[in-house]
């Protein structure tokens, strides 16, 4: 028996990242909204609280612009500015993170491969096509179109059903502790947390594995196998969760 029967990945900031000229995008948003520019992108990002709200991306980003406008003493419509930002952003401008293609290839060698993203298909589809993921994975679940998103179990259950595998035999790779690791735990999948920095700690969360690069996924999938790809002794060895690093 294989250590993992299937591997699935989060999309944004796990497999890929935006590939925009951020400064140009920021200026274009102000131009689109007819507002004299103020501040810099580096000032805006820390003012955005938590991950984007899939149901209200404009409101989420607008709250950041409202805080930034207050800091610069500007009287603007932050929602209009946020809407302009969304309008000029090109969702197809994405690039694979280092090690992503190697991780996908290693996952395909281990079994079926899936992608589970919290975004809706009408926004995420452009990224999937730009990355050519249709030809590399066996199933894609857009949790943004479901009644419940990560960290609820439902999207993960849809994923394992689409891949025709059991949850406990599936590894889910993601960068978010509160969405990816928590969601995988809630649905019975095993998790690999892709942390942004070696200094990051999982806190109260308990990912089964911690990786600092997607390049480590191939070794993780091969770990414990003999030369023939089976667990030592020809049987499936019990897999104990690794201690979080």
From TrEMBL:
Name the UniProt record assigns to this protein: Haloacid dehalogenase
InterPro entries reported for this sequence: HAD-like_hydrolase, HAD-like_sf, HAD-SF_hydro_IA, HAD_sf
Gene Ontology annotations of biological process type: riboflavin biosynthetic process
Segments of this protein annotated with the region Disordered: 222-245
SUPFAM superfamilies the record matches: HAD-like
Required co-factors: Mg(2+)
Record-linked Gene3D superfamilies: HAD superfamily/HAD-like, Haloacid dehalogenase hydrolase-like domain
UniProt keyword list: Hydrolase, Magnesium
Pfam families assigned to the protein according to its UniProt record, in alphabetical order: Hydrolase (PF00702)
An annotated Gene Ontology molecular function: hydrolase activity
Family: Belongs to the HAD-like hydrolase superfamily.
